[in-house]
Amino acid sequence: MLRDFSVSSGEMVERAHRLMSAASNRYRIVEQVSRRAKRCRFEDDEKGDPSLMKPVIRAVLEMSDELTEPEILGHDLN
């Protein structure tokens, strides 16, 4: 299966770094990313149309967007 990543690896590293820097507890943020990725994977499986982006990458991108746009943040990262 061919995976298409719309984000460069450098941007991905920068977003992950910002996400980790904003968290007061690194273990907890990793756990949240893991849960979000698992949910993304299950959502793709339920639709029957797998996303072109890996669930972990999609989770980090979504969470970093929530960090930069706090009005869409459903829960705090701390």
From TrEMBL:
InterPro entries named in the record: DNA-dir_RNA_pol_omega (IPR003716), Pol_omega/Rpo6/RPB6 (IPR006110), RPB6/omega-like_sf (IPR036161)
Keyword Transmembrane set for record: no
A single Gene Ontology CC annotation of this entry is:
DNA-directed RNA polymerase complex
EC number(s) from the headed UniProt entry: 2.7.7.6
Q: What's its catalytic activity?
A: RNA(n) + a ribonucleoside 5'-triphosphate = RNA(n+1) + diphosphate
Q: Which is an annotated Pfam family here?
A: RNA_pol_Rpb6
| GO BP: any one term | DNA-templated transcription
Q: Name one GO molecular function term.
A: DNA-directed RNA polymerase activity
Top-level taxonomic group: Bacteria
Q: Which UniProt keywords apply?
A: DNA-directed RNA polymerase, Nucleotidyltransferase, Transcription, Transferase
The entry describes its oligomerization and partners as: In cyanobacteria the RNAP catalytic core is composed of 2 alpha, 1 beta, 1 beta', 1 gamma and 1 omega subunit. When a sigma factor is associated with the core the holoenzyme is formed, which can initiate transcription.
Record function comment? Promotes RNA polymerase assembly. Latches the N- and C-terminal regions of the beta' subunit thereby facilitating its interaction with the beta and alpha subunits.
Q: Which family does it belong to?
A: Belongs to the RNA polymerase subunit omega family.
The protein's name is DNA-directed RNA polymerase subunit omega
